[in-house]
Amino acid sequence: MPWSQQAKSYPGRYIDSNRLLLVIAIMALMAYGIAGLAIWIIYQARLEQYSQNLLGAAQNKVALLEYVTRQHYEKEHDQPPAPGNDTSGLADYPLSEPERVEILEHFAQAVGGSGSFRLTGENLLVYTVGNKLTITSSREGDEVNDYGLSSTEMDEPLRRALAGESGTIIARDYRGKRVIAALVPLPQLGAAMVVKMDMTEFSAPYRRAAIITLLVGTLLIIGSGVFCWREGHRIIGKLAASESRYRTLMDNVPLCVFLKDGNGHYLTANRYFYLRYGVDKKSIPEMSDHAIFPPEVARKHINDDQRVLEEGITLTGYETQMLNGEERIIRYLKCPLKNDEGEPKGIVGIHQDVTQDRRNSEALKQLNAELESQVRKRTAQLELANRELESFAYSVSHDLRAPLRAMAGFSEALKEEYENSFDATAADYIKRIHRATGNMAELIDSLLSLSRSTTGELKVVPLDLSRMAADVVDDLRSASPDHRPQVQIAPNLNAEGDSRLIRNVLENLIGNAWKYTRLSADPQIEIGSAMTRPPDEGGEETAEIEAFFVRDNGAGFDMTYANKLFRPFQRLHTEKEFQGSGIGLATVERIIHRHNGQIWAHSEPGRGATFYFTLDQLA
Predict the structure, then answer these.
(1) 166 contact partners, CB below 8 Å, separation of at least 6
(2) Which residues contact 249 (CB under 8 A, 6 or more apart)?
(3) For residue 451, which of 415, 496, 501 has the smallest C-alpha distance?
(4) Are residues 304 and 172 in the same domain?
(5) Staple partner for 553: which of 344, 368, 445, 608, CB 3.0–4.6 Å?
(6) How far, in Å, are 23, 480, 516 from residue 483 at the CA level?
(7) Given pLDDT bands bounded at 50, 70 and 90, which one contains residue 143?
(8) What is the pLDDT of residue 582?
(9) Quick one: pLDDT at residue 562?
């Protein structure tokens, strides 16, 4: 868009070009006036000074004439002047007519040969001889002219000087040119001295200064105009771009945005407003709420507008509108549009259709209520299942232990009473039955422990893992006096958790280390804490965290099968190598998970194993 059209599209809002040109013109006239006044003041001062200089030059020449007259008189009359008359006028020296003419002619020769000053400067001596008027000029080539006493050719300065006027005047000379002239009359000699110069020469520097000022001022005005034009072009371009960005933003905001003036009339709105309310963009200016909304809605909008303008507040709320025969819920916001003095002069408003959000919110509330109901049902079912599982575990433990005790008792009775009657095969069978019943009892105890690890309420208390580990080691030393590994327990291993369950964790982990170091030449077990990186679900390492560990230098295992470690009844060593039920680590993992912790292991076959676990972030 051309700049002129862009400027017309912003009437009175950003730049008033006519006002700008008027300001430039006024400033130019003021600059011309100030410069002209300064030149005029300098001109007048210089004119006064130059007038005094011309008058002084004329008086100096007259003083010379007086000196010559005195010298001539004293010489011709052999009569010295009276004492104190050195400064007396020519009236003190009565001269005869021939003497006066001789002196004036002699002085005229001096004036004629004195030369001119400047370009147009001129010294003139005028005197009378009889009825003739003689004028002598200092300009080269000028001859002495004789005029009649009534001649009209004599110029104004000479005429006024002969008439006895003294001082400086500005008048026209015998050439018809304006001159500045110094007049010194000599009535005793019937003569007058005039020193003059053309005003054109005197005024030339000031004319040049005025012309230069005019030219410079004109150039400055033209430069300022060009600068203002370019700046206006640039500013209008920026404003047009800003307007385009503003309009693009307004039209693409999925809200109804509008502006009103202080009288409640619409100034502008965005595309969503036009589409939602069916308003023509060209007709929106000066339109009121009564032209868009039903009467009751329009009255409410007008009342809200008055509150915003009078109190300077921001109003928010909800209202119901009928759009295309459907009831819609509209969230509105209105805030004051303030001028530079901070006074409200209009209103910025936003309408947002929240009907679907309300419906989604109601649906979400209903869904949450249904989910909460299902969770309560599932929780009740889970609690019932846990109670049944716990009851089943105790029942299994009780019901299975009785036949196992019977089997163990009868097999032991057979062995004691009929041992001498059994051959080697029968004795081996009896021994196997007895061992199997022991393993079965141990398995039942492990299953019962696994069941208890996932049921019941956690009783979280501060734990001293160092002391708890020492108690577990003491119990193992008492149960296995023939196995004496070197055990190192770090001090101040503190945590929080259920003491019964965490004791079970340490019993299983330290018990495994105790068991799997049985075949080591120099068995060592270490319990402590360290900064380490737990593996994530993909097997990759993560950031370092502090974890407790139980480390041994026993049999170890192949990490390829590490995924089987914490599964029930999964064993990485045979029953012949190391006894066990395969339940302990599964129980440990469930206890750790109940404490919102992690457990993992690192190992190499024949080089021991390290089990890490954390107990932070309890539920």
Answers:
(1) 183, 184, 185
(2) none
(3) 501
(4) no
(5) 608
(6) 108, 6, 11
(7) very low
(8) 56
(9) 64
Structural domain containing residue 181: 1-245
pLDDT at 6: 42
- 137-167 in b/e form (b: 16+ CB < 10 A) is bbeeeeeeeebeeeeeebbebbebbbeeebe
Whether residue 619 is contained in a domain is answered as no
Cα(517)–Cα(510) distance, integer angstroms: 11
Give the chain's end-to-end CA distance (angstroms, integer).
67
Residue with the larger pLDDT of the pair 228 and 8: 228
The β-bridge partners of 192 are 126, 185
In a domain, 618, yes or no: no
The reported pLDDT for the residue numbered 607 is: 84
Number of domains in the chain: 4
Contact 293, 304 (CB under 8 A): no
**CA dihedral for 409, 413, 419, 424, sign (positive or negative):** negative
Q: Are residues 310 and 340 in the same domain?
A: yes
What pLDDT digit, counting tens, does each position of 52-96 carry? 888 888 888 888 777 777 777 777 666 665 444 444 455 566 777
Question: Do both 448 and 468 map to the same domain?
Answer: no
Q: What is the largest CA-CA distance in the chain?
A: 203
- Would you say 135 and 144 are in contact if contact means Cβ atoms under 8 Å apart? yes
DSSP SS3 for 410? helix
- Of residues 113 and 50, more confidently modeled: 50
Of 353, 384, 418, the residue that ends a domain is 353
Last residue of a domain, one of 175, 210, 245: 245
**Closest C-alpha to 526, from 474, 480, 490:** 490
Minimum mean pLDDT among 152-166, 219-233, 461-475, 529-543: which range?
529-543
- Helices within 175-267 (DSSP H only): 199-252
71-99 residues labelled b (16+ CB within 10 A) or e (exposed): ebbeeeeeeeeeeeeeeeebeebebeeeb
pTM here?
0.38
Q: Which DSSP symbol is given to 419?
A: T
3-state class of 500 per DSSP?
helix
How many other CB atoms sit within 10 Å of the CB of residue 575?
Answer: 11
